[in-house]
Amino acid sequence: MCDSSLPRGLRNCNPLNIRRSADLWQGLHEQQSDPDFYCFKSMAWGYRAAFIVLRTYNHKYGINTISGIIQRWAPEADNNDTEEYIQRVCVLTGFARDMPLNPYDPTHMGPLVAAMSRVECGRRANLTEVKAGWELYMGSE
Fold this sequence. Notes:
Layout: H1 8-11, H2 43-61, H3 66-73, H4 82-93, H5 106-121, H6 127-139
């Protein structure tokens, strides 16, 4: 498990704070100690899961912009400041809120998940871990 002194998403090796559900992700930690969010074996596995969720948003729901992704990821109905989240991700990535993003392009998805991780966890993403997650994601195709 990741360092217990870290923010929840980093402690759980789940940098985008993917909520627990019926999904059985690859790379899950044997012990799911958090009642609300998944715990992964490593940050790479957590990033891989994030890339897959965002790909699903694209394929299943036709969502491929920062605005659309964040509105689904952190909706106002869940007591989130969705607009602030969108603005922060746009600033951190340098992408326009309605720029179409390709879920198979690491120059789109790497900066996106790194920015979302920063918003979720309050710390800069380790880009080596993001890249390792991307490699796991692309290897699962």
